[in-house]
Amino acid sequence: MASSPSFRPVGHPVGGAAAWLGRDLRNTTAWQHTLSAGAVEELAAALAAVQARGLTPPRITREDFPLPRLAATLDGLLSEARDGRGFFLLRGLPAERFDEAEREILFWGIGTHLGRAVSQNAHGQLLGHVFDQGRTHAMANTRGYQTKADLTFHTDRCDLVGLLCQRAAMQGGESSVVSTAAIHDEILRRRPDLLPLLYRGFHYGEREAADNPRGVSAARIPVFSETDGVVSCRFIRRAIDLAETRGVSVTPAEREALDLMTALTEDPDFRLDMMLRPGDMQFCNNYRTAHARTAFEDWPEAPRKRLMVRLWLSFREAWPLAEDFGEHEGIPYRPEAGAAPAPASAG
């Protein structure tokens, strides 16, 4: 295993729009954008055009999916995700007008205006389906999205993660977002002695087949890092804990830093909770926010079971990252993983 890097100097607070608190956003819809009737018609026209040509994801490009007026709105929302509060919720797509296959195409088409799709798993999926596959965290090679258990706050291995709600669960499955910029600044204010430990980082355990035969990252991956004055975050507590079960030692001070980070993500003052409805699309900047999901109970009928569609996107304009930040261009495809399980169809 590679030697541990020395502590990095801790910078100034991030501040600004990125360092928001959930308590300040609960009573405002500023982080939501509702599609106008005209925007819906523009999407419908783009959908009809690709359907007429027999195009489906991932073959649809931005050029195949022109949005003459909505494109400017999406550019503004993308700027908000990059340079503002780091996330947005897109609402107003009438689920009763478009079936699930059509909503999936619309989601992909919108994604082409926000970035470039990257692989989400060893199956090489560019458009992933998030549903209960009857798995648990105790099973080997299982990732949280394949279960109905809660997903604690984490970031993904891409720049921008998008989530389309196709079907909501019978109970639970609430989505949450938190500003990791605000958490960085709170740790700097409250316990500046712990922040260098988070900048130094931790080894990660791999849920899927790992490049390292021990199933642990060869080097430490920083939770926070700063490049060109930009502070970025990568935080997957369950993967850090998994590495510990595989022989990586964590000092009491490091555990205290991780516990404080975790506690702040779960603090009601910091987190923002929302229930996604069919047709809603949530987009989060993985460097400025972390996201979570509560456990859920599903409908007994297969066609009604909870289903989300996920996009992992890379920004067209590269985000400044440290060399040791960790993988952020998706998860490499591994042929031996085979095809991904398919969700039940709503018909």
Structure description:
The protein has a domain at 22-178 and 275-337: Clavaminate synthase-like (Double-stranded beta-helix, 4-Layer Sandwich). It has eight helices and 15 strands. It has helices at residues 22-25, 37-52, 70-83, 100-112, 180-190, 195-200, 237-245, 252-266; strands spanning 32-34, 87-91, 116-117, 127-130, 151-154, 160-167, 171-172, 175-179, 224-227, 230-233, 271-274, 281-285, 289-293, 296-297, 307-314. A hairpin with a 2-residue loop joins strand 9 (224-227) and strand 10. Helix 2 (37-52) packs across helix 4 (100-112) and helix 5 crosses helix 8. The protein is globular, with a radius of gyration of 20 Å. The termini are far apart. The model is unreliable at 1-7 (pLDDT under 50). Keywords: Antibiotic biosynthesis, Dioxygenase, Oxidoreductase. Pfam families: TauD.
